[in-house]
Design goal:
Helix content is about 40%, strand content about 15%. It is an alpha/beta fold. The longest helix is centred in the middle third of the chain and has 38 residues, at about 285-325.
Length: about 800
C-alpha cells in the first residue's frame, strides 16, 4: 500500500521548474559529454540521450541510458531555490521505489513531491523526487539533520553534497549479494529495504560525525564533546545501533528467502518467475539447489549478525559500568570451577586422586650442555618461553626429497632459531612408527624414525641445548600399534623393551581384542588404545619418559591426543618426570550454530580448563579457543569477536593465561593437511595478536621459514622479549569493533585469581598493538598519556613501544 501511494503521488511542477528545463538540458548534456571521456560520435550521442532522458524529453533516451547501467541518478537545484530534484532511471523492478524512498529518508531529506513513469515496454522506470533539507544542515552533524526539530526553513541540498547523495542512493539500490538478483520474494519488501537503507545511513552518520569531530578539535580526545573514540559511550551506542540495523536487514533477507522456499514447496519452482524474467544465469543453474544454498547462506548471515549484536550489547554493558562506576562483586568467572586462588604448582580444583601429591617442579640439570634452565614457575617454564614448532607434516620426507634427514636440518638451523629469540623447540615424535609422521608408534625405545637415526636425534638435542633451547618431545601414548598378532589374528602383541599383550589395550574396540578396562576418554579408531588404568602400563610409560629426559636429553613434553585418556594420568606422568615444559593437545571443536561461530565461547574454553584441572594443573593446553575465534575474526573482518563479555581476551589465554599455549597453525591444521587453516592473507595479523598477548606463543615452522612472514615474525619476537611480555601479561583492550582491534599490554599491577589482568603497570615497559584496516593509534587515543613509537608494522598490523623506555634502553646500550 505504501509503494502504491508513493507511485500515485503527483504534484504539478511550478512554472519556475518548467522554465528551467532548457538550462538543465544544456548543463546535463555538457556533464554527460565530459563523463563519456573520448568525445567520439557514439559518446556524443549517448551524452545527448542522457541529457534528454534527464529532463524527460525522450522515452527512448530513458531506456537507452538505463540499459547502459543498472541505475542512473541525476541531481539538480532549479532556479526557484526551493527544492532539489532527484531523478532515478533504471530497471522497473518490484521494491526498487521503496529502496529509493527509504534511502532519501535515511539520508535526512524530506520528500515534498514526486512522480513516476515507465517506458511503454514497462522495463524502465523514471522516478522524480523533489526534496528539501534544513537550511543550516551544512554546518550541523548528521545526527542533527536526521533528528530535525529546530523548525528551520527547508531549502535545497547544497551542490557540494550531490556526489555523496548520488553514491548513497546507488549503494542503497545495489544488491548486497549477487543472489538477490535471482531469488526475490513476491511479498512486499518494505521492511527489508528500510533495514538496509538504515544500515547505510548509520554507517555514514558515524563517518560524518567523526569528520566533524576531527575538524572541531583535531585529534580525538577524551575531553572533546565530539569524541568518537572506542571508549566513548556514544561511540558504543552508535556501534550498537549499526549492528542492530544489520541484524534487522539479515532477518529480513532470511524471512524473504524462507517465503521463496515455502512457495517452492507449495507451488513448485516454475511458479516463481514469469518466463521473460529469467536470464541466462538463472536458466543455467539448478534453481532448487540454488534456493537451498541461498537459504543456508541467509541463515548463516543471520546467525553471524546475532553474534555481532551479542558482542555489541556486551560492549555497551561494559561502557555503562564504566560510566556509573559500579563494580559488581562477582566471582572470578562464571565459567571457572573454583574460587580458590591459583597455586602456581597446582590448579583451581585438585582432582581427589592427585590431592597433596603435586610438589614444586624440580630444577633442570645439565647433561649434554653446561647450560641449565631455572626452576619453572608454570607448566610452560618461567613464563617467558617462546616455542617454535620445528616440523611440518612433510618433514618426514626430507631424506627422500632433499637428501638429508630432518634432524640434520634442525642441527644446521639451531643458531638461527636461538638468534630469532625462540627458547624452546617442539620436535616431532621420536619413536619408530607405522606412519611416517610418527603418530602411530610401535617400539617406544626405538628412536630410529623417518626424521633420522637415534644418533642424529641425540646430536640435534645436544645442539639445541648448546644454544639454551629447550627440546620438547612429541609424546604419543594414547595408542600404540602392535607388531605381532594373537592367535585370533588381532594386532595386540607388542615387542621390544615394553612387551605388552592384550591386557594393555582397552576393551571397547573388538578389532584389537583388548582385555583391559574401558577407556577413560575418546576412542581412537585407527590403533589399539592404551589402558592407562593398568599399573604396569603407567610404570612402563614413566620409566620410558624418564629415559627420554635423563638419557636422551629432552626437557619437555607435548602430549598428543589427550582427549583419549583421563588428564589425571597425564598429571601423574608429569609429576613423576618433572619436565621444564608440559602441554597437551586438547583439540575440542568450537561452538557453532548453523555453521557460524558463536560469539560466546565460554563453554569451549571451560572444557579446556577442565582438562588442565584434571592434570592437577601441572600441564598446559593448546589454546584452540583463541585460534578458532582469531581466524574467524580476521577472516570475516569481525574484530569485535576478540573481546569477551568481561572485557578480556575471549580465548583460553583470557581465562588461565599461564596454562594457555597459543598458536595460529600447526602440522594438522595447516601444512599439507589443511584441516583447519588460518586465513593466508592474515598470517602476520594473527602473529601480531599471539606474540603480544598473554599465554605461551608457538610459531609454526613453515611461517617462520617463509620469506613473506619471516621479517615480520622476527620483529614481533624482538618486541616481545624487549618489552618483557610474559605468559601472564596484563591486557587492556582499547578497541574491538568490526574493522579494528587494539590493546595496551604489559606487566600487571595486580593479577586476579585466574592469573589474568586488565590493569597494566605503566611504570614498567609496555606496548600497544592493533590489527585491522581501520585507523588507530595510541598517540591519537592518548593511551596511558604516554608517547608511543611504532617499532614494527605491516599490512593491517602495528606495534608501538613506550618511547621513554626505548630511549632508556638506547642510552644504556651506548
Amino acid at each position: 500500500e505504501r509503494e502504491t501511494a508513493v507511485r500515485t503521488t503527483t504534484t504539478m511542477a511550478s512554472s519556475s521548474k518548467v522554465n528551467a528545463r532548457a538550462r538543465r538540458l544544456s548543463c546535463v548534456t555538457r556533464a554527460v559529454r565530459q563523463a563519456s571521456g573520448s568525445g567520439s560520435e557514439g559518446d556524443s550521442t549517448l551524452a545527448e540521450a542522457g541529457a534528454r532522458a534527464e529532463v524527460g524529453d525522450d522515452e527512448e533516451a530513458v531506456a537507452a541510458v538505463s540499459s547502459r547501467t543498472a541505475f542512473t541518478v541525476y541531481l539538480d537545484n532549479p532556479g526557484d531555490g526551493q527544492n532539489t530534484s532527484i531523478r532515478v532511471l533504471g530497471p522497473n523492478k518490484r521494491g526498487e521505489l521503496a529502496k529509493i524512498v527509504s534511502a532519501l529518508t535515511n539520508y535526512g531529506l524530506d520528500v515534498q513531491s514526486s512522480f513516476t513513469r515507465s517506458t511503454s515496454s514497462g522495463r524502465t522506470i523514471d522516478d522524480v523526487f523533489y526534496v528539501t533539507v534544513d537550511a543550516d544542515s551544512g554546518n550541523r552533524s548528521f545526527d542533527d539533520i536526521v533528528n530535525d526539530g529546530s523548525g528551520k526553513v527547508p531549502t535545497q541540498v547544497p551542490e557540494s553534497q550531490f556526489e555523496d547523495l548520488r553514491q548513497f542512493i546507488l549503494q542503497a539500490l545495489t544488491p548486497s549479494h549477487p543472489s538477490a538478483l535471482m531469488y526475490t520474494s513476491r511479498q512486499p519488501k518494505i521492511y527489508g529495504v528500510a533495514a538496509e537503507a538504515e544500515v547505510l545511513a548509520l554507517k555514514r552518520r558515524g563517518v560524518v560525525n567523526k569528520q566533524l569531530a576531527a575538524a572541531a578539535g583535531g585529534a580525538f580526545s577524551s575531553s572533546s564533546s565530539l569524541s568518537v573514540t572506542s571508549a566513548d559511550p556514544l561511540f558504543m551506542a552508535s556501534q550498537l545501533e549499526i549492528v542492530a540495523a544489520e541484524l534487522a536487514s539479515a532477518t529480513a533477507k532470511l524471512v524473504q528467502i524462507e517465503r521463496v522456499y515455502a512457495d517452492v514447496e507449495t507451488c513448485g519452482i516454475d511458479g516463481l518467475w514469469d518466463t521473460d524474467e529469467r536470464n541466462e544465469y538463472e536458466q543455467s543453474q539448478d534453481p532448487c539447489a540454488a534456493i537451498e544454498a541461498e537459504r543456508a547462506d541467509a541463515r548463516a548471515m543471520f546467525e553471524r549478525k546475532l553474534a555481532a549484536i551479542e558482542a555489541a550489547l556486551a560492549a555497551r554493558d561494559r561502557a555503562r559500568k564504566d560510566i556509573t562506576s559500579v563494580i559488581e562483586k562477582v566471582p572470578m568467572s562464571t565459567i571457572s570451577k573454583s574460587q580458590r586462588p591459583v597455586d602456581e604448582h597446582n590448579t583451581l580444583a585438585k582432582p581427589k586422586s592427585m590431592a597433596g601429591r603435586i610438589e614444586p617442579m624440580a630444577p633442570q640439570t645439565p647433561l649434554m650442555s653446561p647450560l641449565s634452565r631455572p626452576l619453572p614457575s608454570t607448566p610452560c617454564g618461567n613464563g617467558k618461553e617462546i616455542i617454535l614448532q620445528g616440523f611440518n607434516w612433510e618433514s618426514c620426507n626430507e631424506k627422500v626429497t632433499k637428501g638429508r634427514t630432518w634432524y640434520e636440518v634442525l642441527i644446521s638451523q639451531a643458531p638461527d632459531i636461538a638468534k630469532a629469540g625462540f627458547t624452546s623447540i617442539w620436535m616431532p615424535p621420536p619413536t619408530k612408527s607405522v606412519s611416517k609422521q610418527g603418530y602411530l608408534p610401535t617400539d617406544l625405545y626405538d628412536l630410529n624414525s623417518f626424521y633420522g637415526t637415534e644418533e642424529e636425534l641425540r646430536s640435534c638435542i645436544a645442539r639445541m641445548r648448546e644454544y639454551n633451547i629447550t627440546p620438547v618431545a612429541d609424546i604419543v601414548i594414547n595408542h600404540r600399534c602392535a607388531e605381532a598378532q594373537d592367535d585370533a589374528g588381532r594386532w595386540n602383541q607388542y615387542t621390544g623393551k615394553i612387551a605388552w599383550d592384550a591386557r594393555a589395550v582397552t576393551c571397547e574396540n573388538p578389532d584389537f581384542g583388548g582385555k583391559g578396562a574401558r577407556g577413560t576418554g575418546e576412542d581412537y579408531l585407527p590403533a589399539p588404545n592404551i589402558d592407562h588404568t593398568q599399573d604396569f602400563v603407567r610404570e612402563d610409560l614413566k620409566t620410558w619418559l624418564k629415559w627420554l629426559r635423563e638419557d636422551v636429553g629432552f626437557r619437555g613434553w607435548r602430549f598428543d591426543f589427550v582427549k583419549g585418556y583421563s588428564g589425571t594420568f597425564t598429571g601423574e606422568y608429569v609429576e613423576e618426570t618433572r619436565p621444564f615444559l608440559s602441554f597437551g593437545e586438547f583439540w575440542d571443536a568450537c561452538d557453532y550454530r548453523d555453521g557460524v561461530l558463536e560469539y560466546n565461547q565460554d563453554r569451549h574454553r571451560q572444557r579446556t580448563c577442565d582438562w588442565v584441572d584434571s592434570t592437577g594443573g601441572n600441564t598446559a593446553a593448546f589454546d584452540f579457543t583463541t585460534k578458532g575465534i582469531l581466524q574467524e575474526a580476521l577472516g570475516r573482518t569481525e574484530y569485535w569477536r576478540l573481546i569477551d563479555s568481561k572485557g578480556k581476551p575471549p580465548g583460553f589465554c583470557g581465562m588461565w593465561p599461564s596454562r594457555a599455549v597459543t598458536f595460529i597453525e600447526n602440522h594438522d591444521t595447516g601444512s599439507t593437511l589443511q584441516h583447519w587453516p588460518f586465513p593466508s592473507s592474515k598470517i602476520l595479523q594473527g602473529y601480531c595478536y599471539i606474540l603480544t598477548h598473554p599465554g605461551t606463543p608457538t610459531v609454526f615452522y613453515d611461517h617462520w621459514q617463509d620469506e613473506k612472514y619471516a621479517e615480520g615474525i622476527n620483529a614481533m619476537l624482538e618486541v616481545r622479549k624487549r618489552a618483557g611480555i610474559t605468559s601472564r601479561a596484563a591486557v587492556h583492550i582499547e578497541q574491538a569493533t568490526a574493522g579494528c582491534y587494539a590493546a595496551h599490554l604489559g606487566r600487571s599491577i595486580e593479577e586476579d585469581e585466574s592469573g589474568s589482568s586488565s590493569d597494566v603497570d605503566i611504570s614498567k615497559p609496555s606496548i600497544c598493538m592493533k590489527i585491522g584496516k581501520e585507523d588507530w593509534s595510541p598517540n591519537t587515543e592518548k593511551v596511558a598519556n604516554k608517547s608511543w613509537k611504532c617499532t614494527a608494522s605491516g599490512d593491517g598490523w602495528a606495534i608501538w613501544e613506550d618511547r621513554d623506555f626505548l630511549e632508556t634502553v638506547s642510552s644504556q646500550s651506548r
